[in-house]
Amino acid sequence: MNFQEQLNDIQSKSVNFPPSNILLSQKVYSDLVLAKKWKNVEYKPVNGLEICVFLANEPELSTPSIHKLIILPIFQDTEQLSLKRISNIFEVLSTTQVIDTPIEKFTIAIYSTDSTIVYYHISKGLIKATQRNK
What we know:
By secondary structure, the protein is an alpha+beta fold. The protein has a single domain, classed as Trna Endonuclease, Chain: A, domain 1, CATH 3.40.1350.10. The protein is 31% helix and 24% strand. It contains three helices and five strands, in the order H-H-E-E-E-H-E-E. The chain has helices spanning 3-13, 19-35, 83-95, and strands spanning 42-46, 51-56, 69-75, 105-111, 117-123. Strands 1-2-3-4-5 form a five-stranded mixed sheet. Strand 3, helix 3 and strand 4 (105-111) form a beta-alpha-beta unit. The longest helix has 17 residues, at 19-35. It is globular and about 55 Å long. The chain starts with a helix and ends in an 11-residue tail after the last strand. InterPro entries: tRNA-endonuc_su_Sen15, tRNA_endonuc-like_dom_sf, tRNA_intron_Endo_cat-like_sf. Belongs to the SEN15 family.
């Protein structure tokens, strides 16, 4: 499939998702493929999150990892990432079996209103920092 067909396929696989999430998925896919020049970017709809996630290997690695990155698009202005929300994301990704192996980390693609997209890896086991009493 060519690039435009891929975007249309993302839209057809996301038909029951909010329109803003479909557009967000397409923007992140475009960034990965066109701007970052990643190859073999797969996408899977995740009903529990109402968005498509992307599966890809980081191209900078000299040997591709057998563990693909799971990339989850989110809006900077509308999504709040608490530890509870991150835990819920891990649970949804694990129960939908996005990949065949246990999920130990995922990558969030945070889309800003100025069209900037930043990527952060989130590892399982993230815990809240404790405060010391002075």
